[in-house]
Records
---
Amino acid sequence: MRKVKVIAAAVLAAALSWSGPAAAQESALTKVLESGKLRVGTTGDWNPMSMKDPASGGYVGFDIDVMTELARDLGVEVEFVPTEWKTLVPGIVADRYDISTSASMTTQRIRSVGFTDSYYTLGTVPLTQKKNADRFLSWEDINQEGVTVAVTLGTSQEQQAKTLFPKATIRTIEAPARDFQEVLAGRADVSITSNVEASKLVEAHDVLTIVPVEEPAAPADIAFLVGQSDQVWLNYLNHWIRIKENQGFFDELIEKWMPLN
C-alpha cells in the first residue's frame, strides 16, 4: 500500500510541474489522496458496466472493476455513490463524487463536464419483442407513425431517438424504471440502447431480440466523467488509462464482461 501511495504522489508531483501549486490545491486528485477515499458516481443499471445487487446493495460490472483497480493504485478506498442518468452530470458539477463510471461522450455533456480518454467504442441498437421480428427489420421500419419507442431519461439514446425517429412516438422513462421494461410490458414497441447492453438483455429476457439493422447508430466513445477544469486529475487518469491499456487490463475486462462483443 505504501508503494502505490508513493507512486500516486509522484504522478501528482509531475502534474504539478505542468499546472502549478494552485491547480493541485483544487484538484480532485489532491482531495482523494488526502481523504483516502475515491468517490465514484454510478447508476447501477447499465449491464455489463455497472449493476447494483438489490439484495446486498453492492455493485458489480466492468466499470466497477476499473474503479476498484484505480482506487487500489491510488492507495485509497472506493466509495460508490448512487446516481441516475439524469443526475450523472449534475453530480460531477456539484462535487458529489470525484469521477463517474462510464458514459457516452456527447456534445451536451461536454458543455458541463470533462471526459477522460476513451477505452471503448459502442453503438446504439434497437430491441423489440420476438413476436415483432417480422415487423421491424430496419431503422426505417421503426421510424413510422404508430410505433412507440421507449428511452431512458438522461441517456444519450434519449437524444438520439429524436433524430432517428421523428415520425414515431417517443416515450421517456425515468429511473429507476428502464426503457426495455416498457417493451417487456407491451407499452412500447421498441427501445434503444448500447450494443453491449443489448446483448446482455436478450440473454436475460428470452422474449427480447435485437432488431437486425444494417449497422448500429450513433457510434460513440465511452469514458469517465470528471470536473471540466480539473486538468491535474484528468492528466493523472489519462496516463493511468494508458498504462492499464498497455498492461492488457482492459482487454482482460472485455473478455470477462463482454466476451461476445
---
Amino acid sequence: MDLQLNNKVAVITGASRGICRCIAEILSAEGMRLVIAARSDELLKEVAKSCSSEVLPVAIDLREEYSPQRLIGIAADHFGRIDVLVNNAGATKRGDFLELTEADWEDGFALKFFSTVRCIRAAWPHLRASNGSVVNIAGVGGRTGSAEFAIGGSVNAAILNLTKALADRGIKDGVRVNAINPGSIATDRLQTRIKLFATENKISSAEAAQAMTLKLGIGRFGTPEDIAKAVAFLASSAAEYFQGCIVDIDGGQTRTL
C-alpha cells in the first residue's frame, strides 16, 4: 500500500532507541523527512545514519519546560512544515508504590506526559495548516493497572485521556489525534526484565521469556516493527477516518473492553 507520505515531515520524540528508532526508520523508508529528538546526540546520529531520507537529529531534554517549543520551532524552521508528530519520549520507573519517591513521580510525568502536552501545543498550528496528525505512544498499563507500574500506568492513562480530548478539538481544526498502546515489546528494557526474571528464578533467559509470555497470555513478545508499521498507517491518509482511536498492539494481552 502506498501511504502517500513521501516528502512529508514528521517530528519524533524519544527516537534514539527501541520503538521510536524503528518508527523513524519505517517513516523514512516511506519517504518522510524527519526531525528526531532525544537526549543522546550520539545515538540520534546513529539513527539518522540508518535512515534513507533527510533526518535532522536534535539532542534535547524534553523535561525542561521550554524545550518542546524549541524543538518544534527548529523543525518548522528547517523544513517549513510539520505533518506528523509522534510522541514517545519518556520511560517511567517501576517499583513498589510505597518506595517510589516524589522525584520518581515528577520525572515520570515531566518527560512522558508534560513533554507530550507541550509538543502538541507547540506543533498544533503547524498541524492545523497541514491537516496533519498526532500519534501518541502510551502503553497497555494505562488501561490495566498493576502494582509495580503505578507511575507508568498513571502517566499512560493521562495520555489516553489527552488523546481523546485533543481528538475532539481536532475535529474542528482538521488535526487527527490517535494513540497506540504497545504491549510487551522486545526492546532493551524488556530484555533487562527477562534477564532479571531469569536470575531471580534460576532459569535461562529463553525459559524466562517463555514463562513471561505464558503469564501474560500471549503467543510472543511484540517487535518494534509491529508498532512502527501501525504508526505509519495512522500518520497516513489511509487512516483519515481514525480520530481519537486507542489501538492496543499487545498480542491480546488486554482483555478488557
---
Amino acid sequence: MLDVKAIDVTIEDHQVLKETSLRVTTGEVMAVLGPSGSGKTTLLRAIAGLVAVDSGDITWDGESVLGIPSHLRRFGLMFQGYALFPHMDVADNVAFGLKMSGHDKVANEVADALEWVDLGGFGDRTVDSLSGGEKQRVALARTLAPQPRLVMLDEPLGALDRNLRQRLVVDTRRVLEERGVTAIVVTHDRDEASALADRLAIMRDGSVVQTGHIEDILADPADDWVAEFLS
C-alpha cells in the first residue's frame, strides 16, 4: 500500500504541493484528477523520487521510501508524451527498464510485455513507424515490463485524438486489471478517470481536496468548486 503523508514540495521557490496526502491500497487503480497546474504531475514525480520532498513522508507497506533512490523504489512512471527513444527499436525501448533493473532473460520478458499490450511481433519495428496508439502501448509495456510494485501513468492518453483515447481507455484498464498492478493515473478528463480507476482523488492548488468513488463524490462533493469541476 502506498501512503503519501502530508508532503510539501517546493520547486524554484514555488510551493507546488502543500500537505498533500493520498493513500492507494494494493491492487487499486487511483485516478488523480485536477486542472492544469494543480500539482498532479509533481505528485507523481515526488512519489517516484524525481523531486525532493520538503516535509511529510511517502511509505510503501509502512516503510518510508524517501531515503531510497528512484531507481530502487520499484515504482514505474510512464511520462506524458511517452518519452520513447527514437534511435531504438520497440524491443530495445521495452528492454530499457529491464536492463536498468538488472533483469535476466530480457528478451523473453520483452516479448511477454509486448503480448500484454497486444503488440506481439512488434519488437523490430522503429518508433517512427508506429501510430500514436501503438506508441502508447509500447510506453505502457516498457513501464510494466520490470513488474514494478506501483505503476504511475501521467496523462497516458492525452496526446491522442478523442476517438482513439476512448478505445485505448478500455485496453489500458484491461491491462492494469490483468496484471493486478497498483496504479495511479493522472488525467484532467473526468470520463477517462472514471473508466480507468477504482477511485478518484481531486487536486486543487497543490493539495488533494477529496477522494472516493466518483458516484460518492458527485453525490456529496467537498465544496462548490469540486461540484463545478466535475459537472
---
Amino acid sequence: MTTSSDGFPARIATLQNDLGVQGRRVQSLLEAAFDAAFARDAAGAAQAIAMDDRVDTVDVEIERKSVALLVEATSSGAALSENLLRQVLTIVKVNNELERIADAGVAVGELVQDLSKANVALPETFRVMTNSIIGILRDSYTSLQRNDGHLAKVVLASEDAVEMFKRALAREVQVQVSSGKMSVDTGFLISEIATLCEIIAGHCTNIAEQALYVATGKIVRHMAGKWEEVPTPPR
C-alpha cells in the first residue's frame, strides 16, 4: 500500500539547507588556504587544513540522513515524486563534490610550507585565478540553492576561463624561471596549485550540472569543447 509523502519535502529542504551551509564551509576553507599561500603563512595553512575535519563530519551526516530518508520512504511505501527523488540524489552527489573540493583545499594548504621558502612575489595572474575559483565555487552551490539554471550555465561556461588562466600562469612562470627571477621549485609549486584550481573547477562544474538537472530536468554533457543539453528520453 502506498502512503503519503507528507513530511519528506520538509526533510529534503533541511538537507538542502545543510548542503548550503557545507558549501559555505568549504568556501571558507578554500579562501583560508589560498590566503595562506599568498601570505606564505604556515600557521594559517594549518588552520585551513584543520577545517577539513568538520567538512568530513558533515559530509558523512548528510549522506547518512539522505540514505535514511530514502530507506524510510521505500519501506513505508511513500510515493515520492520524481522531483523529490531527483533532489535527494542531487544532494548526495553534490555533497560528495564539496568534500572533494575541500580535499583539494587541504592539498593547497599542504604546499604552503614549501612555498613559504620562496622569496619572490607570486604572479598577479595567480591571485586572479584563485579569486575566480572562489567565485565559481560560490556560484555552483548557490545555483543549486536558488534552483537557478541560468547561474548553473554560467558556472559551466567558466571552465574555459580557468584553463585560460592556467595557460597564462604557466607562461608567466616559465618566463620568470628562465630569467632567474623564480626558482624551478617555486615554479613547480605554483603549477601544482594551478592544477588543484583546475580540479576544483571540474568539481564545481559537476555541481552546476546537478543544479541544472534539478532546475530543468535536463542532462548536460561536455561535448566538442562545449556544454550541450541532452534531450530528455521519451517516456
